[in-house]
Amino acid sequence: MSTVKSCLQQKTAGVYSLPSSASVLQALEMMRERKIRAVLIIDAERLVGIVSQGDCAIKVLLPGRSATEVSVSEIMSRNPLTVALGDNLDLCMKTMMTRSIRHLPVLDAERVVGMVSIGDIVKDIMAQQGQHIQYLETYIKGHAVEY
């Protein structure tokens, strides 16, 4: 199984984050522009939370609060679970499933270096299965017996 590091290498580089003082509107705009579903909240180079589209919708938009007036610090999930570069994607998948979360920030020596999503892990699994199928097809074709 692949590691978090190999998964991040398949993605476009970059950590998408905002400070905790940012508005929910800023978070939503970043999500739209970057085509992502969650933003990391970082203050003084330290991960303090994560905000998802669902957080914005359920905690701000549905109750009729103003996305320009509410800061992400009011709605973020504080102290999110994190993973390390060397962690196995199987572990990440199990963590996401048991905790009902879709994103895991990646830390390297306390520094945020990326984020893996459930979609990233599914893409990795599909790529591995494709490689396995290709290997089996080659094996079968290379060892076929003709009569």
Shape: elongated
> Stretches where pLDDT falls below 50 for ≥5 residues?
none
**Mean residue pLDDT:** 90
- What integer value in Å does the Rg equal? 19 Å
Number of helices: 6
Strand order of the largest sheet: 1-2-3-4
* The CATH homologous superfamily: CBS-domain
CATH topology: CBS-domain
Strand content: 15-25%
Given the helix and strand composition, which structural class is it? alpha/beta
Q: Give the % helix.
A: 40-55%
| Count of spatially separate domains | 1
Run of helices and strands: HEHEEHHEEHEEH
CATH architecture classification: Roll
C-alpha termini separation: 39 Å
Structural write-up:
The protein is built from 6 helices and 7 strands; from the N terminus they run H-E-H-E-E-H-H-E-E-H-E-E-H. It has helices at 4-9, 24-34, 53-61, 72-75, 89-99, 118-142; strands at residues 17-18, 38-43, 46-52, 77-78, 83-84, 103-108, 111-117. The strands form 2 sheets. It has a 4-stranded mixed beta sheet with strand order 1-2-3-4. Strands 5-6-7 form a 3-stranded mixed beta sheet. The protein is elongated and about 65 Å long.
Q: Which helices and strands appear, and what pairs or packs with what?
A:
Blueprint: H1 4-9, E1 17-18, H2 24-34, E2 38-43, E3 46-52, H3 53-61, H4 72-75, E4 77-78, E5 83-84, H5 89-99, E6 103-108, E7 111-117, H6 118-142
Parallel strand pairs: 1-2, 5-6
Antiparallel strand pairs: 2-3, 3-4, 6-7
